[in-house]
Design brief:
The protein has one domain: 3-Layer(aba) Sandwich (Rossmann fold), CATH 3.40.50. About 40% of the residues lie in helices and about 15% in strands. The relative contact order is 0.23.
């Protein structure tokens, strides 16, 4: 297992497409009111983290930038294309229900989202996403905040924690929290209600 620096990972807040189970991939949809609230919840956790002056990277897609602008309270960040969500090929913009109707054998198994994206016709696939994630992680020079996407985050968290990629899609995929990764372990930080 590679020893990576401390990472704080934030998934973007809920979007209009998340709400209706429409595959976004590298397309975009705006944050919902819940998504804005998710980002504000993250902002409540970020003060002490930002005081440590970590490097900050954000996916260039609109939903992550909107989340970062709230959650990071105006702290400067850099965008990196390697942080974009897995590309779902011809399935981007389609609902999970539409895809499952065309593949009833999968519907019986109720696969996690990462497995659906991995099977997408013309998509990037898990190996392509994992290569981007590892490339990004190898460039980290110190403690880092990352604002990116759910499936990207599952793959990154599995990589950092030394888990088999078959388990990545079964990791939690929550919004409105911060995942702290250090010494090969993960801690989910949530604001006190």
């Amino acid at each position: 297992m590679t020893n990576y620096p401390r990472i704080w990972f934030l998934r973007h807040g809920q979007t209009e497409w998340n709400k209706v189970y429409r595959l976004q991939g590298q397309l975009d949809s705006p944050l919902t009111a819940q998504g804005v609230a998710d980002a504000h919840r993250q902002a409540g956790l970020m003060g002490p983290i930002l005081a440590l002056s970590p490097d900050i990277y954000v996916s260039p897609l609109g939903r992550t930038i909107a989340t970062a602008d709230i959650a990071l309270g105006g702290a400067p960040y850099r965008c990196d294309d390697r942080l974009m969500e897995i590309h779902a090929g011809k399935w981007q913009g389609r609902t999970r229900a539409e895809i499952m109707a065309e593949h009833p054998n999968w519907a019986k198994e109720n696969p996690p989202a990462l497995e659906i994206y991995q099977m997408a016709e013309g998509g990037e696939g898990l190996s392509g996403l994992q290569a981007r994630v590892v490339s990004f992680l190898k460039d980290l020079a110190g403690p880092t905040v990352i604002v990116a996407h759910g499936l990207w985050g599952q793959v990154m968290r599995a990589e950092v924690c030394g888990l088999d990629m078959k388990r990545a899609g079964h990791l939690s995929n929550d919004q409105g929290c911060v995942y702290l990764l250090e010494n090969g372990h993960e801690t989910k930080l949530e604001p006190l209600e």
